[in-house]
Each structure stands twice: as C-alpha cells, then as structure tokens.
C-alpha cells in the first residue's frame, strides 16, 4: 500500500499513531484534572502525609486512564 504524502512531502501518521497520540493527550489532561480534583477530595476527607500522596496519585492515574481511553476511542473513530 503506498504511503500518502502531504502537501510538503511529509507522510501522514497512521491510524494507530493517531490513536496513540489521542491516548497520550487524554492521559496528560486526565492526570492534570486528577491532580486538582484528587487533591481537593483527599484534603476534604482529612488525609495527610503519605496517605495524601497515595490518594492523589491514585486519582491521577484513574482519571488519566479514563480520559485517555475515551480520547483514543474518539481518535480511532476519526480514522
């Protein structure tokens, strides 16, 4: 299958590359949102020290993974 070439001689990223990029961007945005919301929720229930860091990290990974998954699905639909 020939590689498609853009207007300036660059090849277009494959569908898999677009899905990976969507997951990466979604994961980064989800991590930032998870840091904000996780910090507030952990402080609200009274966590301190190591427990606070673990709670924030868990919220960041969960929201990053969730948002990254949905962004990669959206990019896959656009291919």
Automatic annotation (TrEMBL):
GO terms for cellular component: TIM23 mitochondrial import inner membrane translocase complex. The keyword Lyase does not apply. The keyword Transmembrane helix applies. It comes from the Eukaryota. GO terms for biological process: protein import into mitochondrial matrix; protein insertion into mitochondrial inner membrane. Signal peptide: none annotated. It is found in: Membrane. Keywords: Membrane, Transmembrane, Transmembrane helix. Pfam families: Romo1. SMART domains: Romo1. The chain crosses the membrane at residues 23-43. Has antibacterial activity against a variety of bacteria including S.aureus, P.aeruginosa and M.tuberculosis. Acts by inducing bacterial membrane breakage. Belongs to the MGR2 family. This is Reactive oxygen species modulator 1. It comes from Varanus komodoensis (Komodo dragon). The gene is ROMO1.
